[in-house]
Amino acid sequence: MSIVGIEELEFGAVDVEKGKRFAADFGLAPLQDDGDASTAAVYETLDGAKLSVRSIDDPALPEAFEEGDTLRRMTWGAADAAALDTLRERLSDQPSFIDHGDAFECRDPNGMTVRVRVSTLRDVELDVTPINQWGDMRRVDQPSPVYENAKPASIGHAVFFVDDLEATERFYREKLGFSVSDRYIDRAVFLRMQKRGGHHNLFLLKLPTRGRGLNHVAFTVRDIHEVIGGGLAMTRKKWTTFIGPGRHPVSSAYFWYVNSPLGGAFEYYTNEDYLTEAWQPREMRHSLESFTEWAIEGGIDAETRRQKKPEDKE
Ligand SMILES: [Fe+2]
Fold first, then answer.
1. CA–centroid distance, residue 135 to ligand 1 (Å)
2. What pLDDT digit, counting tens, does each position of 185-195 carry?
3. If pLDDT is split at 50, 70 and 90, which confidence band does 308 have?
4. According to CATH, what is the number of the domain 154-312?
5. How confident is the model over 226-274, as pLDDT tens digits?
6. Residue 110 alpha carbon to ligand 1 centre in Å
7. Rounded to the nearest whole angstrom, what is the distance from the C-alpha of residue 114 to the centroid of ligand 1?
8. What whole-number distance in Å separates Cα of residue 23 and Cα of residue 18?
9. Where are the domains of the chain?
10. Residue 213 C-alpha to ligand 1 middle, in angstroms?
11. How many A from CA of 200 to the centre of ligand 1?
12. 106 in helix, strand or coil?
């Protein structure tokens, strides 16, 4: 079983112009845009993963799994044509299955339309400045970078609120071959598409207080400095931060989540754990400490670049 990447995210937005501005400001490269602010456009990450912004009532989009702005279809990449055929066979009994020949799609138990095609993602080589740590001086005669904005390298994961955690987990494990990385008992599961890879490509979360929907989608950037540079750039462009910067002990990633007019949030992240067959999934009780070591609610002031003291806030 061999899903190797997230190929495409297709969003339906009430305000297409705002969604497009957000995608471009986030650092995604415009790929296809006819210049008309109100019509659909496609953007890409450095590795060629696509993000499309369409009108919420565009007939090209499948049924939504929640009201309003949200992700409408998620495309995963199969390693090769043989893997695609194996997956096609295995998923052909799923609801709303459609065979497009070079791709197929169906609906997962949470209502998200899942499409699979042979991966077209490119290898990306980036200049990554090393970090100096005690006894391990890797950056010599070279300052570490400051980024004016972020340029996401790839789409790393998606996080969904789910109605039926067990059924949705089973679908991704048994049908698409995902592995469990970690779990919050009776609440959530972190899944990765390959045994050897980043900590999670999907996080499924069941909350008593809300039904299925999009929580966020996450984009990998090269280092912590790009997380900060990207978040500050979005703040300067007047987009609001949900939470960030911060750090998740559960995956070790540094993050910054920006509220998105396409639904949920868009996350910049870096330095997540890399797991192998040897990794033993942890079964944890959800806790503030395991989820967030530290985080800044609402972001950092991009002008003063300092957190104001409580008494300075109006
Ligand atoms: Fe995330």
1. 31
2. 999 999 999 99
3. confident
4. 3.10.180.10
5. 999 999 999 999 999 999 999 999 999 999 999 999 999 999 999 999 9
6. 19
7. 19
8. 9
9. 3-118, 154-312
10. 15
11. 9
12. strand
How many separate helices (H) and strands (E) can be counted in the chain?
5, 20
CA dist., res. 244 & res. 227, Å (int) = 9
CA 51 to ligand 1 center in whole angstroms: 17
Alpha-carbon distance 7 to 272, whole Å? 20
Residue 191 neighbours by CB under 8 Å, 6+ apart: 169, 172, 173, 178, 179, 180, 181, 200, 201, 202, 203, 204
Ligand 1 centre distance from Cα of residue 286 (Å): 16
The residues placing their C-beta within 5 Å of ligand 1, an ion, are 218, 267
CA dihedral for 301, 13, 247, 205, sign (positive or negative):
positive
Cα(20)–Cα(31) distance, integer angstroms? 12
Distance 217 CA to ligand 1 centre (A): 7
Which CATH topology does 3-118 take?
2,3-Dihydroxybiphenyl 1,2-Dioxygenase; domain 1 (3.10.180)
The rounded Å distance from CA 38 to ligand 1 centre is 29
What pTM was estimated for this model as a whole? 0.96
Q: What's 226-255 look like in SS3?
A: HHHHHHHHHHHCCCCEEEEEEECCCCCCEE
CA of 240 to the centre of ligand 1 (A): 17
Distance 93 CA to ligand 1 centre (A): 30
